[in-house]
Amino acid sequence: MFHLKNKTAVVTGGAKGIGAATAKLLGQAGAEVEILDIERGCDVTDEAQVKAAFARLGAIDILVNNAGRAVRKSAVEVKKEDWDAVIELNLTALFLCSRLAHPHMKKRGGGAIVNLASIMGLSGGIYPNASYQAAKGGVVNLTRALALEWAADNIRVNAVAPTYVRTDLTAPIFSNPELLKTVMGHTPLGRLPEPEDIAAAIVFLCSDAARCITGVTLPVDSGYLAR
Prior knowledge:
Blueprint: E1 8-12, H1 17-28, E2 32-36, H2 47-57, E3 62-65, H3 80-107, E4 111-116, H4 130-150, E5 155-162, H5 171-174, H6 177-184, H7 195-206, E6 217-220
Parallel strand pairs: 1-2, 1-3, 3-4, 4-5, 5-6
Helix pairs in contact: 1-7, 2-3, 3-4
């Protein structure tokens, strides 16, 4: 139930971090993996570029919407252009990629989409981060909306909600002992997940082991949201 042989998977933002770990694990599960990343020549905020990439692939069974960015500023500090950039990549590009993947999956008789949400989309967070929190909250509810809309096409849409994971995105937190101490104070298990832990949850949601799961956001948060 966990193998993905004869499946074609697309991972956005798959050049590093959680995306790279996910692409690797999808491949180990047997999928053919295509990475769409600005570092590899595809800007997923550009609908035409994504459409061309999907057309080149033809078959798409799995889409992991991982590409994201953060501007860690409070609501009174964040500039509109920064707000727009965060919403555009974290939420709008996710919507566009999903919508463009839909006809390919429908043609295949179904598929699985997994979105990268965040504990920040399910809580008020620890630090002010208005644009990111708004975007990830949108991801959580968009996941539900698409799951219901596309259930009749046998397309499952789920999300994972990681806590703080050591990636380039979180480097400012992991490099600051005081900030990291605060994070660990909200981590009941006493350990933070690695990118591979998030990838494992994503691959599970992509597999037939999760064939009756849709519309959920699965926290991988070391107990953060249980508080």
